[in-house]
Amino acid sequence: MTSYHVxxxxxxxxxxxxxxxxxxLQDASETIxxxxxYPDFLPLLGEAAKRYKVPLESITKLIVTHHDMDHIGSLAAxxxxxxxxxxxxxxxxxxxxxxxxxxxxxxxxESTFDALPDEAxxxxxxxxxxxxSIEPVPVxxxxxxxxxxxxxxxxxxxxTPGHLPGHxxxxxxxxxxxxxxxxxxxxxxxxxxxxxxFAWDLGEAVRSVQRLLEYDIDQIICYHGGLFRGDVRxxxxxxxxxxxx
Length: 245
Hints:
Layout: E1 3-6, E2 9-13, E3 16-20, E4 23-26, E5 31-34, H1 42-50, E6 61-64, H2 69-72, H3 75-81, E7 86-90, H4 94-97, H5 104-112, H6 121-132, E8 141-143, E9 148-149, E10 155-159, E11 168-172, E12 177-181, E13 185-187, E14 190-192, H7 202-212, E15 219-222, E16 226-229, H8 232-244
Parallel strand pairs: 5-6, 6-7, 7-8, 12-15
Antiparallel strand pairs: 1-4, 2-3, 4-5, 9-10, 10-11, 11-12, 13-14, 15-16
Helix pairs in contact: 5-6, 7-8
């Protein structure tokens, strides 16, 4: 028996209420967390998991959809607290998680800093410091597009680049569920591209949405927005049309 839980974590950011949605998958032998929030989110993550009677120490594996700081910020703290957790990431994203290469968001922020107006530079400096402070963590297992992980009824790796080159989503064929990461988000009840103006390659991000049409999806779990149900194919087509028409 496989189950999943959407861990909605709410927090304040610059006086505004925000939310992220890591996901827990469970079967008889595995408890798998997908993404883990910002730095210092371990207590919030523990509270969210506790609502489903899942202690953090029971997590066996952690799958990273990509290396943005709201997805890996607490990765090092989790690994320190629970060294048995196996870290899994896409092969293209792994060098940015383990520190072999400088984080792409850090490169992006540094390369655009000089062109910013002076009033925007203090916030940009704060962002650069925060991204630079993310601790590297060794990746235990790398995966690639089309690979099926054997746990929780099967977890298909779907490479969905664009937001970042190594971004991946996860498809659960047993429940026809897509865990999207940041491939798509929910905004005002509709699917959209995540932070389109900051996408590493917006055209690639749209092509990744097109790739999702190859899968029989009944519901999508978005890291930003939570659970999307309804006519998924139609919603994906509307999104593609909005960026290609």
